[in-house]
């Protein structure tokens, strides 16, 4: 019992000493220091946001420069771009997409850009299509998905199921490459 009372008295003395130290000896930061700490935290957040934006702007600048034609007669603004079609077929091959047809359309001229459509018919799964579109979006060309059609006729689906292609569906995509025209 004496040991318990001694321990309790010792604990009270240590707690009192700790309380005395925190309240009288150890002083908190002045208010101005706390305000400056908060300002530093806010400015650091702004700096991080600016660094992220700067890195994205570099990527946007690279993308624009890669799709900027000097005039409407520039080789980048041709009706059908064989390098782009090769790039599309390579991406499709990487994702296991069965290409049925790819057909370039006639380009459409606008004031500041040229759109060149490509009609693409494929047999693919939804997952492969999404991965394909993600990779096309990340490519060095400006590309838009203008139209998407999913063909789900019963006879087609049954024929594909007989061939063991149960997850693949016939789809038609209309993609357009955008070529920016340099303004004079």
Percent helix range: 40-55%
What structural category arises from helix and sheet content? alpha+beta
SSE string: HHEHEEEHEHE
Q: Indicate the proportion of strand residues.
A: 15-25%
Gyration radius (Cα, Å) is 32 Å
CATH class annotation of the largest domain: Alpha Beta
Architecture overview:
- The protein is α+β, with helices and mostly antiparallel strands.
- The chain folds into two domains: 2-64; 75-181, Alpha-Beta Plaits, CATH 3.30.70.60.
- 51% of the residues lie in helices and 24% in strands.
- The chain is built from five helices and six strands.
- Strands 1, 2, 3, 4, 5 and 6 form a six-stranded mixed β-sheet that branches.
- A hairpin with a 3-residue loop joins strand 3 and strand 4 (113-124).
- The longest helix has 36 residues, at 31-66.
Write the layout of secondary structure elements.
Layout: H1 2-25, H2 31-66, E1 68-69, H3 82-94, E2 98-104, E3 108-109, E4 113-124, H4 126-137, E5 142-150, H5 154-162, E6 169-181
Parallel strand pairs: 1-6
Antiparallel strand pairs: 2-4, 3-4, 4-6, 5-6
How would you concisely characterize the structure shown here?
The protein is α+β, with helices and mostly antiparallel strands and 184 residues long.
Summary tags:
single chain; 184 residues; alpha+beta; Alpha-Beta Plaits; 2 domains; 5 helices; 51% helix
